[in-house]
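INFO batch 0412 | record 1 of 1 | parsing
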Amino acid sequence: MPVRYDTGAPSRGTGIGFPPFVYRFLRLLAHLINRAYWRVEVDGAAHVPATGPVILAPVHRSFMDFFAVSEVTKRKIFYMTKDEMWRTPLLGSFLDAVGAFPVHREGADRLALDRAQDVLERGDVLILFPEGTRRAGPVVQDLHEGAAFLAARTGAVIVPIGVGGTAQAMPKGSKFVRPVKVHLVVGAPLAAPERSARGRVPRTQVHALTEQLRTDLQALYDTAEGRAARPGGRAGAPGG
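INFO prediction complete | emitting tokens
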């Protein structure tokens, strides 16, 4: 049985809780910053299902990718962040309130996967960067299989997202954020692998889904980068 963890509850044992309006206020603030400072535009937002479990799977080139990707849906988004952030009780409670849950990044964190599975089994939205960490360059290389694994376990669809412009706005290692135009291109959802008659998902299907995700992300990333570099450009492409 997976470990159950209410990712929306107050932090463990702190006795500190934040009311729901905190999350709504922060989402509104993020939206205003996205639109005013980075002029974020989204193509293909209709690809994100309005109900049911969803894994948002963006490319990852900047610390600000999460903030930009929040524009693709009005649904509450849950996400992993490094476990060191929970060392301070107040900060830990705040992170719990805004949909975060801890992950130990030095190795495979089974508890984090269980918490992610719990989010999806509740029918919520999980953002998961399939590249694992911020990378550099125009090529989407080998992906982690966490997204495909969770899709297989929960039946969630995977929505690939190309994010263009964030590498220029705030590249890895930068301490400053430039007001560079950001463009998101959301691709068609990828269905979870089908289970066998014995209720299992063959490992080959997990590999195949991960490779399909990589191919789609590359096309979407190329399109998003092109549109971010050409304000007003709306040429047809994946997710458009």
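INFO post-check: Residues 1-15, 233-238 have pLDDT under 50 and may be disordered.
INFO record closed
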